[in-house]
Amino acid sequence: MRRRRASSAAVLAAAALLAGCAQSVDPIERLGKKAAQGVRSHRPAASQPYRTWGLPAPLAPAPAPAARPAPPRAAGSSLPVVDRVPTRDKVVFLTYDDGAERDPRFVDMVRELRLPVSMFLTDSVVGPGYGHFARLLSVGAGIQNHTLDHPALPGLPYAGQRAEICGQQDKLKSRFGIRPRLFRPPYGRYDTTTLRAAADCGIAAVVLWRATATADGLTYARGEHRLHPGDIVEVGSDESTGPTIRERTTRLLRRVESEGLTVGRLENYL
């Protein structure tokens, strides 16, 4: 019995000694921990996304339109043909054609800036790159129709135009599970047959553009040479030379902000 008590006392004494050692931290070690905490507390905060992408200020959030405005319809057609949206909201709309440029950093830009861009895709140009546009779709981009093969449509027979437009509708449905509502004719050219074929393929509006963002700045198809609320802007394609798609977009966004505007989602207005 005495041996058991002596053994228990020894165990308790050892435990107390270990507890004391655990609480007694070496001064040098304690100093090192404090220094490490000081380094962590003085690390600079992560830069804001707008700074990362070269903007002077965050993009203002776009207002949610109370209702879709009624754009003017083309003569003799049930479809509207628009290069700007009739709205008082201080928004412009960014659109990109074809699908030749597939910069993965552009996906990051769209995600981090929450940029509501619209991509008008041509199947023969996108080729095997549909995965890139699936990623853009997943971060909020809109996917729309720009024909299967990018032909000049005016003068083509109805069957040919319908095949180009409906064929791309089917292709995009199979790729993304969505059937686009908007259509942009190649080169911005169309005729009455185009409008009839587009309507028969389930298109709700034909989308042109009032301004184009090029390597040299903005050019205008008509009207005053400045951006107005509701303008549709085409960010011109330049796959081989000149500024990248990200650089062109950044320049355009700076211009948009300087004129007191922001970027809206085209699909919310048409």
Keywords:
270 residues; 2 domains; alpha/beta; single chain; 7-stranded mixed sheet; TIM Barrel; 10 strands; disordered N terminus
Count of DSSP helices?
9
The percentage of residues in β strands lies in 5-15%
| CATH third-tier fold name of the largest domain | TIM Barrel
Q: How many discrete domains?
A: 2
The CATH homologous superfamily of the largest domain is named Glycoside hydrolase/deacetylase
Encode the helix/strand succession as letters: HHHEEHEHHEHEHEEEEHE
Number of strands: 10
Kindly report the average pLDDT value.
84
Identify the overall geometry: globular
> What share of the residues lie within helices?
25-40%
Structure description:
This protein is an alpha/beta fold and 270 residues long. The chain folds into two domains: 2-41; 73-268, Alpha-Beta Barrel (TIM Barrel). The protein is 39% helix and 14% strand. Strands 2, 3, 4, 7, 8, 9 and 10 form a seven-stranded mixed sheet that branches. Strands 1-6-5 form a three-stranded parallel sheet, covered by helices on one side. Helix 7 (158-176) runs parallel beside helix 8. The longest helix is centred in the first third of the chain and has 22 residues, at 2-23.
